[in-house]
Amino acid sequence: MATVSTVTETYPWTNLAPGHHVAALDVSDLCGNQTFVESPFDFTDDPPMVRSISVDSTAPKKPILTIDASDDVGVQRIDILRDGTLVTSLTAAPYKVQLDTSTWTDGNHTVVARAYDAGGQTGQQSTIVKADNTAPVVTMTAQHLGLGTILWTATASDALSTLSEVSMGALLIGLPLARDFSAPPYQVTTTMPPNSDSANFYIGIWATDKFGNVGNREDHEGDLQRHRRLARVHCHTRGRLLTPPTWAPALASARPSCRPS
C-alpha cells in the first residue's frame, strides 16, 4: 500500500537574491523509487520604506524622534545620522530615539533615518532639527527722573529662537519688586527714600528663550554710586541672582521660588 505524505518546507527568503529561481523537490520511497520535481518562480525584494519621521520637541534641547518604517521582508536596522555622521542605530520596533542637542552647534541640522533590509537595500527620510545653545542678549539702562526716582528700561533679544519669558526684579531697602513681562517695553521704576545713602540696592533682568537658555544682566549699584552692594541671594529657578541674606524673608514672600543661597 502506498503512503502519501504532505511535505512543507520554509525557506529563509532573507538570504535569497531578487530574480528568477527554481525550487526543486527530490522524493524517494522505501523501495528506492525516486521522483524529481522542479517549479520555477520569480522573487522580488523591495527596498525598505521610511514613511515618516515625527519630532516631539516638548523638551527642545532633547527632541524625541519616532520613525515609521517597513519592509516586505523585514527591517534589519535603522541608522540615525546628523549631518552625515552616525548618531545611533535602532534594531527593533518601535523605532524611537531621543537626541541631545546641547552639544551641537547652533542652527539647523539635517537628521536622516536610513532603514536597511537583510539584502543591504536602503530607504530613508530626513528632517530638520534645530539647536540653540546661546543665551538671549539683554541690556539695561537707567533714566533719572528726579527725587530719587529711576526708570529702568531693559531690552532682550534672541537671534535663534523666541523668548519664552522676560522678568525684572529689584530689591530696595529690603523691599522686593518683581515683574514678569509677556512683551516689551520691559520697564520698572524705583524710588530711593530720603536719607538712604547706605541703602542696599539691586536690580536685574532675566530673559529665557524657548530652549531654556537664560541671559541676565545685574546691576547692584546702577548709576546710584551712593548705594552699596552688600551680599547676594541665589534664586534657584531661571538662573536668577538676587540680593542679599538680610532681605531673604521679604524676597521669599514676594517670589516663593527664591531662597537664600
The gist of it:
The chain is mainly β and 261 residues long. It is 3% helix and 52% strand. It has two domains: 49-131, Sandwich (Immunoglobulin-like); 137-254, Immunoglobulins (Immunoglobulin-like).
For this entry, give a set of tags.
mainly beta; 1 helix; Immunoglobulin-like; four-stranded antiparallel beta sheet; disordered C terminus; rod-shaped; 261 residues
Topology of helices and strands:
Elements: E1 19-28, E2 34-43, E3 49-56, E4 64-70, E5 75-82, E6 85-90, E7 95-98, E8 107-117, E9 122-131, E10 137-146, E11 149-157, E12 163-172, E13 175-181, E14 186-191, E15 201-209, E16 214-219, E17 233-234, E18 241-242, H1 248-254
Antiparallel strand pairs: 1-2, 3-4, 4-7, 5-6, 5-8, 8-9, 10-11, 11-14, 12-13, 12-15, 15-16, 17-18
Low-confidence stretches: 222-261
- Using the coordinates shown, work out and report the CATH topology of the largest domain: Immunoglobulin-like
Q: CATH architecture of the largest domain, please?
A: Sandwich
Which percent range fits the helix content? under 10%
Can you walk through the features of this model?
- The chain is mainly β and 261 residues long.
- It folds into 2 domains: 49-131, Immunoglobulins (Immunoglobulin-like); 137-254, Sandwich (Immunoglobulin-like).
- Helices cover 3% and strands 52% of the residues.
- It contains 1 helix and 18 strands.
- The protein has one helix at 248-254, and strands spanning 19-28, 34-43, 49-56, 64-70, 75-82, 85-90, 95-98, 107-117, 122-131, 137-146, 149-157, 163-172, 175-181, 186-191, 201-209, 214-219, 233-234, 241-242.
- The strands form 6 sheets. The chain has a 4-stranded antiparallel sheet, with no helix packed on it.
- A hairpin with a 5-residue loop joins strand 1 and strand 2 (34-43).
- The longest helix is centred in the C-terminal third of the chain and has 7 residues, at 248-254.
- The protein is rod-shaped and about 120 Å long.
- It starts with 18 loop residues before the first strand and ends in a 7-residue tail after the last helix.
- Residues 222-261 have low confidence and may be disordered.
